[in-house]
Design a protein that fits this description.
CATH class of the largest domain: Mainly Beta
Distance between the termini: 29 Å
Low-confidence stretches: 1-46, 180-185
Structural class: alpha+beta
Shape: globular
Mean pLDDT: 77
Number of domains: 2
Radius of gyration: 20 Å
CATH architecture of the largest domain: Sandwich
Number of helices: 12
Number of strands: 10
Length: about 300
């Protein structure tokens, strides 16, 4: 179900309350011409997305400690589980649209080909997408229509139907601007479905399952079939995809917590810290302690 967060925002509307991580909440200010109303967006079970479109101004937004300069005409894509750092002091205006993952991809039995393609297109978008003026205006029109329809006095099922389909249109426009729509359309629906099921399984179980064979068994595929589908859809092997997710979590914990390397190792599923250190060094080129030292100057907001 769509969060009630479809509205026009200004820089002071997103309070500097820390990072989005797990079930923490940020406070946003929902505005119209004269009224101001506070809402809380709860990121439940790491399953929420958000799209931020900048109508005017510039600000630096950090996603997993990577700074992104968001300028007029650009759209930022915030994904489940990422650590977000908002710069409350920056002067900008724009749009925020937040939604749950199941808004796009319902259960396996009810997911349509359009659901699968839209989810794949969203996941292929970069974290920051600058648009041409006509592309940006078209996306803003989508946001404006969604905001208008969100206020209609109609049944919740009718409203959800409108907003969900308009969200599909917005994502499609962003995907076309990124020139990934044609590539997505060429993928086999079976490959896309397997990739999305694998991605969801990894997000759920990467802290305890580190072998591709375990995911293949859970999903009901052979390792060969799973590998072929992930390579076709994501361009990387299942092992590489899983390793990237484990490394990302390790980096988040190293930068944004004071936990020991041993504690982090156990938290993300390594029985022995030495195995985690070998894994991390192989994937990143440096040891966990060195990575933490090199990134110790990053500010947690």
């Amino acid at each position: 179900m769509l969060h009630r967060a479809i509205s026009e925002y200004q820089s002071h509307d997103i309070a500097n309350k820390g990072v989005i991580y797990g079930k923490k909440a940020i406070t946003v200010l929902r505005t119209n011409q004269t009224d101001i109303e506070y809402h809380s967006l709860f990121i439940e079970e790491n399953d929420s997305y958000a799209l931020i479109g900048v109508a005017d101004g510039t600000f630096v937004h950090q996603i997993d400690s990577v700074p992104l300069t968001c300028e007029t005409g650009s759209w930022a894509v915030l994904r489940p589980g990422q650590i977000q750092s908002f710069n409350a002091a920056a002067q900008w205006e724009g749009w925020l649209i937040a939604f749950r993952a199941e808004t796009l991809l319902p259960g396996k039995e009810s997911a349509t080909l359009e659901d699968i393609r839209t989810t794949a297109a969203l996941n292929e978008l970069p974290s920051l997408l600058p648009l041409e003026l006509h592309e940006h205006n078209a996306c803003v029109s989508c946001a404006e229509q969604m905001s208008f329809d969100d206020q209609l006095d109609i049944t919740s099922s009718h409203k959800s139907f409108l907003l969900r389909n308009q969200l599909y249109t917005l994502i499609a426009r962003l995907a076309i601007a990124h020139s990934c729509a044609d590539d997505t359309a060429e993928h086999s629906p079976c490959h896309l479905n397997r990739f999305n099921r694998f991605r969801q399984a990894v997000e759920k179980d990467f802290r305890k399952l580190h072998k591709i064979g375990e995911y293949a068994r859970i999903l009901g595929y052979s390792e060969k079939t799973l590998t072929r589908s992930i390579l076709s859809s994501a361009g990387v092997s299942p092992k590489s995809f899983l390793s990237q997710r484990i490394v990302l979590e390790a980096k988040r914990l190293l930068i944004h917590t004071t936990q020991t390397v041993s504690a982090i190792a156990h938290q993300i599923g390594f029985d022995e810290p030495s195995n985690f250190i070998k894994f991390f060094k192989r994937e990143t080129g440096c040891a966990p302690t060195e990575f933490r030292r090199l990134n110790s100057g990053l500010e947690i907001r």
